[in-house]
């Protein structure tokens, strides 16, 4: 007798790792995860060797990892991830036959001149190109290191919003079900742009992560944080 197709899936999303993977092994749901999603910033201005150390630490816990550069990763990390076949940046990957995940890494320009910064026009082009492939799936998840502008996920002190206008405009138009983001550590939170659920887990070193579930064809997300008392 053949087994029934798998109906329930669990993915763990983390970001802003910055070379510090110590908290990853403490995620209680790790053993049940079907895959790991990294929103960006594997390193602190690191190259392929540093990124490899981070990815190897994740692969030891789960063989399926999709990742992309953040603004703090050097461009060679993008090339290395592509060679390994696990790059989300400007790519469309299949989580299940019904669920696509697609990504845009890096960030818009910052005052700090970090290694992977791009103009809004590049984000707009990348998003549209990826969406043409992702939109054919019944469900789609955008992974954008740079959060959309004007949400709870892109705000810094003094109530200044520093997210991407291109990402915001894309979400307003395309309305994928979920947008996982990062970049702004202090803006850990959850918000909506129309029907799109926007989630920023915050930095992994601060205990932030997100659970993405698919149960009987329905996607859901849970914003989580490791209990500081367990550290």
UniProtKB/TrEMBL annotation:
It comes from Candidatus Desulfovibrio intestinavium. SUPFAM superfamilies: Metallo-dependent phosphatases (SSF56300). It holds the Pfam family Metallophos_3. Residues 139-218 form the Metallophosphoesterase TT1561-like domain. This is Metallophosphoesterase family protein. Transmembrane segments: none annotated. Gene3D superfamilies: 3.60.21.10. Coiled coil: none annotated. InterPro entries: Metallo-depent_PP-like (IPR029052), TT1561-like (IPR029461). It comes from the Bacteria.
